[in-house]
Design goal:
Helix 6 packs across helix 7, helix 7 runs parallel beside helix 8 and helix 14 packs antiparallel against helix 15. The protein is built from 16 helices and 16 strands. A hairpin with a 6-residue loop joins strand 8 and strand 9. The strands form 4 sheets. Strands 4-14-13-12-11-10-6-5 form an 8-stranded parallel beta sheet. A 3-stranded antiparallel beta sheet has the order 1-2-3. A 3-stranded antiparallel beta sheet has the order 7-8-9. The protein has 2 domains: about 260 residues, TIM Barrel; about 100 residues, no CATH class. About 50% of the residues are buried.
C-alpha cells in the first residue's frame, strides 16, 4: 500500500484544512492551482508565481505531448527543469481535452484515438501511455486517463462510460504500482449527472490504492444548481484520509461551495482568462476594468490587496493599458486575479482552522449575488 501523502489538520463541518506532501514541496489545502496548460501560466513568469505564493501549478498532458513532446521535455529535466519552475506540478491526463475534441476522436476499450488539433496527425492515448507521458514530464501529481461524458448523455451511455473509466484506472494503476516514487497518482471519479452512477464510480475508483481522488465531469455545461447538487452528493463519499480534487472548477463561489463539501484542490482557467478579458476579482466584487468610469480613477484596483498590481498602479492606468491593447495589461491583471484566488483559499484555510468557515463562505457568497441566486443558494 502507498504511503498516504495527505494529512487532515482540522475540519470545520465537512470543510478540511490539510497538507499534501509532494516531491517539490508541501501543499497547504484547500489550494487553488493556476493553470499552465503548455508549461506556462499565460502572461506570467515563474518569479511572478513565486511572488504571489503559488506552491503548485497545473500542466496538460495532451498539449505537452503534442508540442513540444514529452520526450523532449524529459531531456530538459522534466517540466520543472524545462519551465524553470521549482514548485509542484499536477498534470491532467488529457481526458477533458479529448472530450472537447469530440469530432476528432474515437473511444474504444484500448484507449482514445484522436487527431491533433495542430496538424491533424493521428494518435492513440491508452491509460499506460498517458502515465508514461506524465512520468516523462515528471509531474508531482499524475491524473489517470478517464472519459468525461457531456451534459445530456443518457443513463445507458454514462453507465457504460463509468465501467470504461474504472477499467482504464486499473490499467493505469498497474502501470504505476503503489509506492513508486516520486510521483503521486490520482484516480478520477465520473458518473455524469446520475447520482447512482456517481456513487458507483466512487466505489469502484476508490477501491484502488490511489494517492488521491478527483471529481471529474462537472462544469461541462450543466446548470449551476445541478453541479452543486452533484458536488454535495459526491464529495463526501470520497475517502476522508486522501486529498479530494474538483477538476476544472471554477468561480470563487464554486470554490467555497466545494470547500464546504469537503474538497481540497481546485484548478480553473477562469482567473487568467478573465484577466485577459478585463474582468477582475476584488474584495468588493467583480470589476470590469474596460468601463469608462475608471478612466480617471486614481484608486488602486483593490485597496485590500497587497499584490504588485494593487500596490503600484491605479485603476485609471489599468484601464488605459487594456484600452491600448498593451501586453502589460495581461500580466498585471493576471497577477491580481491569481493573487485573489490564492488569497481566497488561504482565507478559507484560516477560517477552517479557526472554526468559522460558514461565516467566511457567507462573506464570499455576498460578493456574487447573481451567481448565488442561479445556484439556489
Amino acid at each position: 500500500m502507498a504511503t498516504n501523502p495527505y494529512t487532515v489538520l482540522h475540519a470545520d463541518g465537512l470543510a478540511r484544512a490539510g497538507e499534501l506532501r509532494t516531491a517539490h514541496g508541501v501543499i497547504p489545502t484547500p489550494i487553488f492551482m493556476p493553470v499552465g496548460t503548455v508549461g506556462s501560466v499565460k502572461a506570467l513568469a515563474p518569479d511572478d508565481l513565486a511572488a504571489i505564493g503559488a506552491p503548485i501549478i497545473l500542466g496538460n498532458t495532451y498539449h505537452l505531448y503534442l508540442r513540444p513532446g514529452d520526450e523532449l521535455v524529459a531531456r530538459h529535466g522534466g517540466l520543472h527543469g524545462f519551465a524553470s519552475w521549482s514548485g509542484a506540478i499536477l498534470t491532467d491526463s488529457g481526458g477533458f481535452q479529448v472530450f472537447s475534441l469530440s469530432s476528432l476522436r474515437k473511444i474504444s476499450e484500448e484507449g482514445v484515438e484522436f487527431r491533433s488539433h495542430l496538424n491533424g496527425s493521428k494518435h492513440l492515448f491508452t491509460p499506460e501511455k498517458v502515465i508514461a507521458i506524465e512520468r516523462n514530464l515528471n509531474s508531482d501529481v499524475m491524473m489517470v486517463l478517464d472519459e468525461c461524458v457531456p451534459y445530456g448523455a443518457d443513463f445507458a451511455y454514462t453507465e457504460k462510460s463509468v465501467g470504461l473509466t474504472t477499467r482504464w484506472a486499473r490499467r493505469a494503476k498497474d502501470a504505476y504500482p503503489a509506492g513508486t516514487a516520486p510521483n503521486l497518482i490520482f484516480g478520477i471519479t465520473q458518473g455524469g449527472f446520475f447520482p447512482k452512477l456517481r456513487k458507483r464510480s466512487v466505489e469502484e475508483i476508490c477501491a484502488m490504492d490511489f494517492d488521491g481522488f478527483a471529481i471529474g465531469g462537472l462544469s461541462v455545461g450543466e446548470p449551476k444548481a445541478t453541479m452543486y447538487e452533484l458536488l454535495a452528493h459526491t464529495a463526501p463519499l470520497l475517502p476522508k484520509d486522501r486529498p479530494r480534487y474538483l477538476m476544472g472548477v471554477g468561480t470563487p463561489l464554486d470554490i467555497v461551495t466545494g470547500i464546504r463539501n469537503g474538497v481540497d484542490m481546485f484548478d480553473c482557467v477562469l482567473p487568467t482568462r478573465n484577466a485577459r478579458n478585463g474582468t477582475l476579482y476584488t474584495s468588493l466584487g467583480k470589476v470590469n476594468i474596460k468601463r469608462s468610469e475608471y478612466a480617471e480613477d486614481d484608486a488602486p484596483l483593490d485597496p485590500a490587496c497587497d499584490c504588485y498590481t494593487c500596490r503600484t498602479f491605479s485603476r485609471a492606468y489599468l484601464r488605459h493599458l487594456y484600452a491600448s491593447h498593451e501586453l502589460l495589461a495581461f500580466r498585471l491583471n493576471s497577477l491580481h486575479n491569481l493573487t485573489y484566488f490564492l488569497g481566497l483559499v488561504r482565507g478559507a484555510r484560516r477560517a477552517i482552522l479557526e472554526a468559522r468557515f460558514d461565516a467566511y463562505a457567507a462573506s464570499v457568497e455576498a460578493l456574487y449575488p447573481e451567481e448565488a441566486a442561479q445556484a439556489g443558494l
